[in-house]
From TrEMBL:
Residue ranges occupied by any SnoaL-like domain in the UniProt entry: 25-139
CDD domains in alphabetical order: NTF2_like (cd00531)
Listed name of the protein: SnoaL-like domain-containing protein
InterPro entries according to UniProt: NTF2-like_dom_sf (IPR032710), SnoaL-like (IPR037401)
Organism encoding this protein: Lacisediminihabitans profunda
Gene3D superfamilies: 3.10.450.50
SUPFAM superfamilies: NTF2-like
C-alpha cells in the first residue's frame, strides 16, 4: 500500500469522513494506552493484517490476543498521532496515512523521557462493512526514526 500512495493527486475527503477515520485511529491508541486493549479488535476486519516493518499479524483474533498480551505487561505508552490525511477514498474503501509519535517505557509514572521512542508512518486501508461501519483491513506501521536502544512491546507475529 505505501508505494501506491506516492504520486497520487491530493484527495480532500469530506470533513465528516476524515473525522470518522481520525476517531477510529485515536480510539485504537486510546484503548492500548489507557484501556485494557479489549476494544482494539472491533476496529479491524476479521481477516485484517497488521504489519510492523515486515512482521505480520493475521486476523482480528490474533490482533486481539496480541494486544491483550501486551496489556498485561508493565509497559506505559502514549501513541500521539498527527498529520492524518486521506490519500484515496471511494464509496467503500479509503487509504489513510498519519504520523505516529510513540512515547513508551516500563514502569509506573512518572518515567524519565523527553524524546519519542519512535516516529512512524502509519498506513491504514479502510473498508466499509455491510452495516456501513468503517474498519481497518490492512495497517502498516513503518518506523522512520527510532531512539537508540529502543525496545518495543508489540503483539507477536501470527
Amino acid at each position: 500500500m505505501p508505494s501506491t500512495m506516492k504520486g497520487h493527486h491530493p484527495v480532500l475527503a469530506s470533513q465528516e469522513n476524515k473525522a470518522i477515520f481520525t476517531d477510529i485511529i485515536v480510539a485504537i491508541w486510546y484503548d492500548i494506552d489507557l484501556g485494557d486493549s479489549t476494544n482494539v479488535q472491533y476496529f479491524f476486519t476479521p481477516d485484517a493484517v497488521l504489519s510492523f516493518d515486515g512482521r505480520e499479524i493475521h486476523g482480528r483474533e490474533a490482533i486481539h490476543e496480541g494486544y491483550l498480551t501486551r496489556a498485561k505487561s508493565n509497559r506505559l505508552s502514549r501513541h500521539i498521532i498527527t498529520n492524518v490525511h486521506v490519500v484515496r477514498q471511494d464509496e467503500n474503501s479509503a487509504d489513510v496515512v498519519n504520523t505516529l509519535h510513540l512515547f513508551a517505557g516500563n514502569g509506573v509514572p512518572v518515567l524519565p523521557n523527553a524524546d519519542p521512542l519512535s516516529v512512524t508512518d502509519t498506513f491504514d486501508h479502510f473498508v466499509k462493512s455491510e452495516d456501513g461501519t468503517w474498519l481497518i483491513e490492512n495497517r502498516l506501521l513503518r518506523n522512520l526514526f527510532v531512539r537508540e536502544g529502543a525496545t518495543f512491546v508489540e503483539p507477536p507475529s501470527k
